[in-house]
């Protein structure tokens, strides 16, 4: 029931599963008769159903005698939840069908419950592999459509990810499969306020693993609760993907001639990278200015930075009309708004909401913000252009345009040496991280030096 309510909210109100679920789970716990295992199951059902929606729609379409667009959305939600239980969990088939029919009876009425029963009995005739053989076009006929159905991604996203990743079938299959896995929770110990060792000491040995590459990272194993750690509650540590840590560290570690006193984060909200940079800046005697257009998100940045051991400033400002003087910073981070195609594993519904047109909406803003970054840094200083999307239209295309405009007065640096020990960074000079290769979100990083 709770999983159904969450799916309805996501479908009907364009809500985000990660925002809708916690209050529903809280309410269920308060009513009693609902424990941690129930919460874990409900969460898995919602996330799994949303992620796998593309595959499940193809299966349901093969079991009903009308187009899916003519099936009422609440009926489709009950069916999808039932299909996920049948094909994506170890719940026994009879239990999955009877629970779904019972749910349909309560929320949809007897007539539709019969329809749900008939469809799910057909679905139960094969397992997931059996269905994929039946509903996915053969790889050799249409590789992208095959992968779209098998790995439940919109075809245009398969195509875009493959363009950026390059290579053959194995790599893209691994990437798409990684998007369907629940990501590990990674913590960051904010420099000068906590250490990774302190975070690990606060957890059982099995509950915490060291970061793969970031000295500030701690990876939580299954069931690790960030809120149970004092340093997280006090804001001395936070939840942050290791890829986000790596790009911030790369900017901080790029060698610089001359002064290194003024750092800028031009798109700082909600403040994860700003908090890491502010701590590093404090260790070097530098000051961070964190700017964010949305005032309420600037408030989140202020909260993330409160308690930083060195000086910093947070302002609400539009990075395309910066209030600061040109050339006044030694290091600049521009972590621009983007489609988020590199973080699909975190937002199960995002892949179905995004449209190719979104790229056109972001393009001028991304270019404008990178222009600001290049204008804000002094000659000899360095800019990190960052996205949490690997789409080439948001990464290389934006950087190439900026370099053309700054012909002779900006150069792309090889970013790879600034991510020491990280394997599979490609041919450079920019860096693309990948969930299936690095266990991180697909963050993109270009380091650009102003030369004149
Ligand atoms: C990808 S997020 C940044 C994430 C952040 N660096 C972090 O690690 O927590 C992009 C941010 O840019 C902000 N933004 C959008 N347009 C902006 C603009 N014109 N100037 C400054 N910030 C902007 C968005 O509100 C959003 O908070």
Automatic annotation (TrEMBL):
SUPFAM superfamilies: NusB-like, S-adenosyl-L-methionine-dependent methyltransferases. Residues 161-451 form the SAM-dependent MTase RsmB/NOP-type domain. Transmembrane segments: none annotated. The active site is at 388 (nucleophile). S-adenosyl-L-methionine binds at residues 267-273, 292, 318, 335. GO terms for molecular function: RNA binding; RNA methyltransferase activity. Keywords: Methyltransferase, RNA-binding, S-adenosyl-L-methionine, Transferase. GO terms for biological process: regulation of DNA-templated transcription; RNA methylation. May act as RNA methyltransferase. Belongs to the class I-like SAM-binding methyltransferase superfamily. RsmB/NOP family. This is rRNA cytosine-C5-methyltransferase.
